[in-house]
Design brief:
Structural class of chain A: mainly alpha
CATH class of the largest domain in chain A: Mainly Alpha
CATH architecture of the largest domain in chain A: Orthogonal Bundle
Helix content of chain B: 10-25%
Shape of chain A: globular
Radius of gyration of chain A: 16 Å
CATH topology of the largest domain in chain A: Rna Polymerase Sigma Factor, Chain: A
CATH superfamily of the largest domain in chain A: RNA polymerase sigma factor, region 2, helix turn helix motif
Oligomer: heterodimer
Order of helices and strands of chain A: HHHHHHHH
Number of strands of chain B: 29
Strand order of the largest sheet of chain B: 1-2-3-6-5-4-7-8
Number of domains of chain A: 2
Strand content of chain A: under 5%
Shape of chain B: globular
Helix content of chain A: over 70%
Distance between the termini of chain B: 30 Å
Strand content of chain B: 35-45%
Number of helices of chain B: 10
Distance between the termini of chain A: 43 Å
Largest interface: A-B, 61 and 48 residues
Radius of gyration of chain B: 29 Å
Largest sheet of chain B: 8 strands, antiparallel
Number of domains of chain B: 3
C-alpha cells in the first residue's frame, strides 16, 4: 500500500480499529499496541480491497483476530481504567456508558459495539464474527437487556 | 442506550488514548516492514544470532553465592538491592538455583544482556541488564519497561501470533546512570523441560523522552538458551482425586496443589449446571457473580495448617467456566486460591481447613487453633452484604447489584436490584410488576395507572432510611416510574423506579444499611 493511501486509511479507520480492540480487551495499553500491529499489517498487506468498506471489514477482522490471540496467550488480563481526564461536561454519563458496556461478557459486548458504534446490521456482524444471524440477534438482545438493567432510561432511550 | 451517547463516549476514549498521528504510524509501519524483510529468512537470521551468542547456547550453572552477575556483584545480593528487595529469590540463588547465561546483543540504542535465569518451577525469572546508549534518555528515566516473548523454538517460529509478550520494569543502577536491571517472569511451560527456549526482547519503553519524543523503541534481540533442571528450584506438585469441600451451596473439588517458593497454589473444580445456586440458569455469564460471591465467602473459612502454623489465603481467584469442554467437562468450572509458600516436603502434617472441616493433605490432621500468622487485612476479608456483587470505579463511585430483594409496600412488591454510591448522590433502583396487581385494577396500559403506582412508591419510599455509620439520611428525591410495555429493558410489564439519597463515601464507611418499612438491607 502506498503511503498516501495508508495515511488516508489510518485517518479514517484509526478509531474503528482502536475501539473494537479496546472493547474486546478492555485495556487501553493493549488496545494501543494491537491497533498499531493492525495498521502495520495493513501497510504490508499485499491483497487488493474492492472498496473502503471492504478495507474496513478487513481491518475489523484483523483487529478481532489479534485481540482473540492476545487473550488466549495472556496469563493475566487487567482491565485498564476509563480515562480520568475526559474533558467534557458529560464525563459522568460517558464513563458510565462505557463502564457498563465494558462489564458485559465479551460475547455480548462485541456485537453491541459493532451494532452501535459501527452501525453494522445483523448479517454484517454475523459475517465479521463468524456467527449465525440468530446467535447475533440473541446476543444483542441479551446484551441490551443487561445494559438496561443498569443504565437509567434516559441513558439509553 | 443511545447510539450517539455510546459512539460519542467511545470516540472520546479513542481520541484520549490513541494519539499516534498518521505520520508516526506510517513511520512505525515502514520500520516494521523493513525489519520483517530481514526476519523473513529464519535460517539466515539464526546464523547471524548464532555468531553473536557463540557457544553460549547452554546455560552455565554455578552454585553458591560467589557467582557474580554481569555488573552488580553477587547475584543473590542484587535481589536484596533491586526488584523490590526480593528476599525469596535471593535465597533461591543462595541455594544455587540459577544459571548464568551472559548473552549480549546490541543495536544503535541499547545493549541488552540476558544475565541469568533463576526462580522456581512455577515462576522462572530472567534477569536482563540494559545499557541505554543515549545518556540524555537515561538521565530522564529512573525506570524503563521491556517487552519480550519467551517461547519454544517451534512456537516462536510458527505460532507467534498466538502468544503475547511478557513485560517488566527495570530499575536504574544507583551507580551507573545508563544501566538498568530488569527481572522478568518467564513462561514456566517452556522453561522447565530442559529444551531450547527463546527469549526475544521486542520493545523497550520509557516514560520520558524529550530527546526523540518516541517513548517506545522497537528492538529485536533474541536469546536462545536451555535451562537445566537444577537452575530452577523444585516445586512440589500434588494431584488429588477431587476432594469435595462443601460451601453449603457448592461442592468445590480440590484437584491440584503446587507448593512453590513464592506461594502455594490450590486449584478447585465445581459444577454450576443443575446446582441450586444456578436456579435453572444454563449461561454461566449470568451467574458468575453469585458463584464468585459463594467462593469468596467460603474461602474466608480456609486455613492451611502446617505443623501447627496456620496461614490464611493470600489471594483468591475468580471462577473460569469451561462451557465448551476444552479443559474439563463442559459445565465444569475452576477456581483457585494461594497461600503463602510452605516447606511441604519437610512438613510432617499439612491440613487444609475449609468450613470448619479438616482435610488431611499430609500426615495427621491438625487441630484448628484459628491463629493465622498472616491474618488478612480487614478490608480484604469477605463482608456479608445482601448485594450479589459490588464494583468500585476509579472515580470513587461504587455500584451494587442485588438479586431482586423484595420490598413490599403492601400494594406493590418493589424488587431492589441496583444501588450506586457517588459523591453527589446515592441512587436506589427497584423493579416492579404492574400487570395483575390490585393497583392496576385489570388495566393493561400502564399509562392509565401511572399515577396510582407513583403515588404508592412516593408514599412508601419517603420513609426509607439510609444509615451510614450510625448517621441516618432521608431520601432527597423520589423518582417517577418507567414501564417497559414491550419487554425491551425487562420482561414486558415490568416497571422500574428509583430514589436518591445524599451522596456518601461508601468506600470509607464501616457500615451502610437501607431500611425500608420494617426491612433492613445490609449494603455494607
Amino acid at each position: 500500500m502506498n503511503d498516501e493511501k495508508f495515511l488516508q486509511a489510518y485517518d479514517k479507520y484509526k478509531n474503528t480499529v482502536y475501539a473494537v480492540i479496546f472493547n474486546y480487551l478492555r485495556s487501553a495499553e493493549d488496545a494501543s499496541e494491537l491497533s498499531q500491529d493492525t495498521f502495520i499489517k495493513l501497510y504490508t498487506y499485499d491483497g487488493e480491497f474492492d472498496s473502503d468498506e471492504h478495507m474496513k471489514a478487513w481491518l475489523i477482522r484483523v483487529a478481532i483476530n489479534s485481540s482473540k490471540n492476545h487473550l488466549r496467550s495472556r496469563k493475566h488480563i487487567s482491565a485498564s481504567p476509563i480515562p480520568e481526564d475526559m474533558s467534557s461536561d458529560d464525563r459522568y454519563d460517558t464513563d458510565e456508558i462505557i463502564a457498563e458496556v465494558m462489564k458485559l461478557p465479551e460475547k455480548y459486548r462485541v456485537p453491541i459495539h459493532l451494532f452501535y458504534y459501527e452501525e453494522y446490521g445483523i448479517s454484517e456482524i454475523a459475517d465479521i464474527l463468524g456467527l449465525h444471524e440468530a446467535t447475533v440477534k440473541t446476543r444483542l438482545k441479551r446484551g441490551r437487556d443487561k445494559l438496561r438493567k443498569t443504565l437509567r432510561k434516559e441513558d439509553w432511550l | 442506550m443511545s447510539e450517539n451517547k455510546y459512539k460519542k463516549a467511545m470516540d472520546g476514549v479513542c481520541d484520549k488514548q490513541f494519539r499516534l498521528t498518521g505520520e508516526e504510524m506510517l513511520e512505525k509501519a515502514k520500520a516494521s516492514s523493513a525489519e520483517r524483510n530481514i526476519t523473513m529468512n529464519v535460517a539466515k537470521k539464526r546464523n547471524i544470532i548464532g555468531k553473536f551468542i557463540g557457544a553460549a547456547v547452554a546455560c552455565v550453572v554455578i552454585s553458591g553465592t560467589v557467582a557474580s552477575a554481569m555488573g552488580y556483584g553477587p547475584l543473590g545480593d542484587s535481589f536484596r538491592k533491586f526488584f523490590g528487595k526480593d528476599e525469596v529469590t535471593a535465597k533461591i540463588i543462595d541455594e544455587g538455583h540459577f544459571c548464568e547465561i551472559g548473552q549480549e546483543l546490541s543495536d544503535d540504542m541499547f545493549t541488552v544482556v540476558l544475565v541469568s535465569v533463576t526462580g522456581d518451577l512455577s515462576s522462572p525469572k530472567m534477569l536482563f541488564d540494559i545499557t541505554v546508549k543515549d545518556e540524555q534518555l537515561a538521565a530522564e528515566n529512573d525506570r524503563l519497561q521491556i517487552y519480550a516473548y519467551t517461547l519454544s523454538e517451534e512456537k516462536y517460529l510458527n505460532d507467534l501470533d498466538n502468544y503475547a509478550m511478557w513485560d517488566a520494569y527495570g530499575e536504574k543502577d544507583p551507580e551507573v546512570n545508563n544501566l538498568y536491571h530488569v527481572c522478568m517472569n518467564g513462561a514456566s511451560s517452556f522453561m522447565i523441560n530442559e529444551e531450547e527456549v527463546i527469549a526475544a526482547v521486542k520493545q523497550i519503553s520509557f516514560e520520558n523522552d524529550s530527546v526523540n519524543n518516541k517513548f517506545d523503541y522497537d528492538v529485536n534481540m533474541e536469546y536462545r538458551f536451555t535451562v537445566p533442571k537444577q537452575a530452577l528450584k523444585e516445586t512440589v506438585r500434588e494431584y488429588y482425586d477431587d476432594i469435595p469441600m462443601n460451601s453449603g451451596n457448592i461442592d468445590y473439588r480440590l484437584f491440584f496443589c503446587e507448593f512453590g517458593a513464592y506461594d502455594s497454589l490450590f486449584k478447585f473444580k465445581y459444577d454450576f449446571l443443575g446446582t441450586e445456586l444456578a436456579g435453572g440458569e444454563t449461561d454461566y455469564d449470568n451467574l458468575y457473580a453469585k458463584f464468585d460471591k459463594d467462593w469468596h465467602r467460603f474461602s474466608d473459612t480456609f486455613i492451611l495448617s502446617v505443623d501447627g502454623t496456620e496461614y490464611e489465603p493470600k489471594e483468591l481467584g475468580y471462577g473460569y467456566c469451561d462451557e465448551e469442554g476444552e479443559a474439563f467437562e463442559a459445565g465444569t468450572c475452576s477456581t483457585w486460591m494461594t497461600f503463602p509458600s510452605i516447606d511441604y516436603e519437610n512438613a510432617e502434617n499439612v491440613t487444609l481447613f475449609a468450613g470448619g472441616k479438616a482435610y488431611e493433605l499430609k500426615g495427621k490432621a491438625q487441630e484448628l487453633k484459628n491463629e493465622p500468622v498472616n491474618p488478612r487485612p480487614d478490608n480484604e476479608k469477605y463482608k456479608e452484604t445482601d448485594a450479589l456483587s459490588t464494583y468500585d470505579y476509579d472515580n470513587g463511585e461504587v455500584s451494587q447489584y442485588f438479586d431482586d430483594i423484595v420490598l413490599s409496600s403492601g400494594n406493590v412488591d418493589y424488587r431492589l436490584f441496583y444501588c450506586k454510591y457517588g459523591k453527589d448522590e446515592t441512587s436506589v433502583t427497584v423493579k416492579f410488576d404492574f400487570l395483575g396487581t390490585e393497583l392496576a385494577h385489570g388495566e393493561t396500559d400502564y399509562n392509565n395507572v401511572i399515577d396510582a403506582f407513583d403515588d404508592d412508591w412516593h408514599a412508601f419510599a419517603a420513609n426509607f432510611i439510609l444509615t451510614v455509620d450510625g448517621v441516618e439520611y432521608e431520601p432527597k428525591e423520589l423518582g417517577y416510574s418507567y414501564c417497559d410495555t414491550e419487554g425491551e429493558a425487562f420482561e414486558a410489564g415490568t416497571c422500574s423506579t428509583w430514589l436518591f439519597f445524599p451522596g456518601i463515601n461508601y468506600a470509607e464507611a464501616e457500615s451502610v444499611t437501607l431500611t425500608a418499612n420494617e426491612k433492613t438491607i445490609i449494603l455494607k
